[in-house]
Every structure is written in structure tokens, then in C-alpha cells.
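Protein entry
_____________
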Amino acid sequence: MLKLRVLFACLCLPLLGGCAGSSLFVSYPSQMAPVRQALDSQKPATTLPTLQAGLEGQDALLYAQEAGRVAQISGDFRVSEQYYRQAIADYQTQDNKAVISASDIGAKTSGILLNDNAIPYQGPAFERIMLHQYQALNFLFTKDYEAALVEVRRTNELQAQEQKRFESKSAVQDIENGQVAAEMRRLGQVAGNLDNAFLNAYSYYVTGLIYELLGQPNDAFIDYRKAVRLSPGNPYLQQTLVRLAKTLQMPQYQEFKQRWGDTNATPKTNGQLILLLERGLVPEKQSFTVPFTIDGYWQRVTLPTYVGRPPQVLPATVTGAGKPRQTAPIANLDAMAINALRQQMPAILLRQAARVAAKAKMNQQAGGKHNQNQDNVGAVAVQLFNLVSEQADRRSWLTLPQQAQIASESLPAGSYPIRLDSSPAHQVTIEAGKTTLVWAIDTGNLIRFYSIII
């Protein structure tokens, strides 16, 4: 019985010490609910002190991403840049760890005995790629063009690395447990059976756009081609590729023209309007439980999942700048998040198997024959501890958009009151021979506009 008490003391210390600001017992989505609600208010940055408090914990990387995104949505690109710098540094630290530190051992031991929320957060590949894309936009909107190009190159490098890693692996593993396997199949259907969870047409379009805006059209052409492969039905992408192939006299121009039609010559008095529109928020992870017994003792496995994709996002009607036109979707980040979880599920289940084995051993030790009454109490206590401590890891970057859309138009120089559907007008200026980039972020009941002329 003494050994059991010592074991409980070892388990409870990390529980008691890690409750504040952690997801051990309070799910991450519920902690982030006030932050997501504030995004639809006039002052979303009021939640930054709450997020700042999480920058010292084991989920610092995740909180830095969230804080950077909140500041960015608020229009404070320089503050966002600082938070993103910390998140990028945290990813780099993960990359550079050649040996397991004592803190890692402690976290993984707690994770085996408690739940995956005790393991420091490591973002999926698509979150890391979006981080560098957003940092590039921060630098672009603060006119630090050289830094923007550095982030663009890093975004491309990450996508190439993840592509190689993905190609070197086999398909998502089958799982023997029938209920879990069925859930994985359902996630694949909900996500639209994406081939991967990291290649992102929105990121390729943004990196291509920044390359083109900053005078590197050949690099832009490469990224636009990658984007159109991932989002082949987007008419704005198609016309962008035709236009640039024509300008650069690329051999693919004739092929593109036959597939998508030619582009009209742009008058020298015109400028280009490009709209990036982000709508909604990515869904929150939910959980499902698989109960079973080992040696007569009840155990349960609680795994993260997505109940389903949010309601379909509709294109926006753009008015006030030339003829009315509709935006076109370029990437569904909700589908990427769902598919990322599906691909992570085998590793999650391996950890769960180790946890179940450890808990079963605790039950066996608590159910010995030295003192029947004490041992019965100990066995019940361990079972209760197991049931309470088993929580799914529902952490993810929750301030990302659900979907990205784009639109573009050549317009005579002048001032235009742009509206998206029934939104208030956002006044933009078009200058001859230049590009006006408008970044609109729709969080549900509020659309924020940010624009720059390059």
C-alpha cells in the first residue's frame, strides 16, 4: 500500500503543478473560447495578456502562434511579428534537439501516465507552414521586403521538406481497433480524402504573389504553378498563370491559353487589385471514448477527433471596384486540420497503448492480496484516477481561418469603395502600374480590411 501511495504522490505532483493554464483537465478549446469570441469584437487584442501568460508553459509554441494571429487580426503587424518570432524559435528548438533532455523525459512519462496534454505541444506541418506565410505577410505590410522574401523561401523549404517526408512514408496505417479504424475512415471522408495535410495552395499563391510584387517573376511563376495544381478550378489562379507565362514568354503559355483562355492587355493607366479573403475559423477538436477491460478492470481510451466540418463557406460578392465579381476558394484549412489529425492517429494510438498498459499495471499492483480491504480501496482509487486523467489532446491553432479565397481585377487608377457582400466600404487607391493588395479577414460578424500599394 505504501508503494501505491508513493505512486499517487508522483502522479499528483505534476497534476497539481500543471493545472493552471494547462489542458490536463480543462480542454484547450474551452480555454480558447473567450479569445475566439473576442475576434468578432472591435478589440480582439484585449485577450493578448491571457495568451501572454501561456508563453512560459509547455505549450508556449501554441500560445505564441495564437497571440501572433490575434495581434495580426487586430492590424498590429509588428507585435504579431514578435510573437511569431518566438513560435518560429520554438520550432527551431524542436528541430535542434539531438538528445532527450530530462524535462522531455519527465513530460513524456507524465504523458504516458496522465494524457497527451502533458506532452509539450508540437504543431502539425501545415500550422508551421502557415506561421511562416503569415510572418511573410507581416513583413510585407510593414514594408520590410527583404525579411518577407526570407520567410517566403522558408515557407517553400518547409513545403518541400514535408513533401519528401510524406513521399518516404507509406499510406496512413490501418488500426486494428474497429471503432478507431471506423473513426479514421470517417475523418478521411470529412476532409475530402486529401492526399496530404500540408501542401497548401493558399501558401503557394501568397509566396508567388510576394515574389512577383518584389520583382522575382520567375520564382513567382513556379509557385503559381504549384498553387494551380492544388486548386485547379480557381479562375483567378488560372488567369494569373496565363498572364505571367505570357509576360515571361514561357513555353507553357500556349498550353495555358488553350486550357483557360487568354488574358487581355492591361492599359498602362491601370493598376492591379488583388484581394486575399479569409473567412471563418477552423473547427475545434472534439473527443470520443473507447471503453474496455483488462484483467477485469475497466480502462478507456479517449482520442481526439472532429465531429464534422463547419457549414460550407460561401464566396463573397465584391462590389465597388469595376463590375461585381465573386471571390473563389483557394484552400480549406479546416480540411487540412482534419486530415492532419487523421495522419497523426496511429502515433496517438501507440501512446495510448503504452498508457493503457501502464494503468493496467497500476491496477494489478493495487489489487494484490496483502490486505484485501486496503487493496480493494486502492484498486478502486486507481480506476477512478484512470478514468479522470484520461483526456483527449484537443490542442490546435484555433485562430486560423476556415477557408481562404482570392479575387483580382485590373482597374483604372483612382479611389474605390470596396465592399464584400453587405460589409461597410473599405476605401482603396489604385495607382497606375502598381498593385494594391487588400487583405480581408472575416471572423463571422466582422470583416477587417488591410491594404498596401506596391
